């Protein structure tokens, strides 16, 4: 029996240089990677190994110097900035450490902003489900400044999920949270993958956070040097130690 894996994102020969001459840094050095649909992928590696650069170039927030990358079937490395912006808006949700909530908008307005911007309707049942699972029902009229860090982060997750993006990119999503809120958030992300078929790619330094994923990619010096399926926190920690982290 053969099974076809659908790809939510991929990269071939991904190379990214910053700066010029003596100051030049090769942040990505010929990366080949596939992000399968309905899978939770964690990206780990020492500081400066290229994790954020990989996430940003996969998401079309930054351009490769050489090589190709795709979101679904669309080769974004071949598109103009305007077209990339459109692909990002239509297909991608972001959960970054700086929550990027708009201070003057309520939690609910922040959550529905991506749909409002792209002129799409809100699916009320889906909205209610996300809000229920994230426990934000009694916080929807609050401004971000009136919410705890954990609640703000959950608003950012709800905003990323509400448009049912094909792919969510997360950069240290639990980084600013206490361990209980972090575990809740990661548990929810895992549920979104298992129960709703959401695809998530997440950068993290934390072996426990990585253990919520289906697959960990290990980066070193801009290259993928290893991967691990069904990771446990201990196995990830051992691997990181071997890498001299
Ligand atoms: N805008 C930039 N200009 C110049 N160099 C950069 C830029 N962004 C990243 N770099 C360099 O590229 C390399 C990879 O950086 P990147 O942020 O992707 O690593 P990382 O693995 O995410 O690191 P960390 O875990 O510390 O966040 C580093 O050497 C970094 O100094």
Automatic annotation (TrEMBL):
One of its GO terms (molecular function) is transmembrane transporter activity. One of its GO terms (cellular component) is membrane protein complex. It comes from the Bacteria. Residues 13-240 form the ABC transporter domain. The keyword Nucleotide-binding applies. Pfam families: ABC_tran. InterPro entries: AAA+_ATPase (IPR003593), ABC_transporter-like_ATP-bd (IPR003439), ABC_transporter-like_CS (IPR017871), ABC_transpr_LolD-like (IPR015854), MacB-like_ATP-bd (IPR017911), P-loop_NTPase (IPR027417). Keywords: ATP-binding, Nucleotide-binding, Transport. This is Putative ABC transport system ATP-binding protein.
């Amino acid at each position: 029996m053969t099974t076809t894996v659908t790809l939510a994102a991929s990269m071939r020969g991904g190379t990214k240089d910053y700066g010029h001459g003596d100051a030049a840094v090769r942040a990505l050095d010929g990366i080949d990677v596939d992000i399968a649909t309905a899978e939770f992928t964690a990206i780990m590696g020492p500081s400066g190994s290229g994790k954020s650069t990989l996430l940003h170039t996969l998401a079309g927030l930054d351009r490769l110097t050489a090589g190709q990358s795709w979101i679904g079937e669309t080769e974004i490395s071949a598109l103009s900035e305007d077209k990339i912006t459109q692909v990002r808006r239509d297909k991608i949700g972001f959960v970054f450490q700086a929550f990027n909530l708009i201070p003057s908008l309520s939690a609910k307005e922040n959550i529905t902003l991506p749909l409002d911007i792209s002129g799409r309707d809100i699916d009320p049942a889906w909205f209610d489900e996300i809000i229920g699972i994230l426990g934000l029902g009694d916080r929807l009229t609050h401004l971000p400044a009136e919410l705890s860090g954990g609640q703000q982060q959950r608003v950012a997750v709800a905003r990323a999920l509400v448009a049912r993006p094909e792919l969510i990119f997360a950069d240290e999503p639990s980084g600013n949270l206490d361990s209980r809120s972090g575990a809740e958030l990661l548990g929810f992300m895992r549920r979104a993958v298992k129960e709703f078929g959401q695809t998530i790619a997440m950068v993290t330094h934390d072996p426990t956070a990585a253990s919520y994923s289906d697959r960990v990619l290990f980066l070193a010096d801009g290259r993928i040097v290893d991967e691990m399926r069904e990771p446990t926190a201990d196995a990830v920690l051992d691997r990181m130690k071997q890498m001299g982290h």
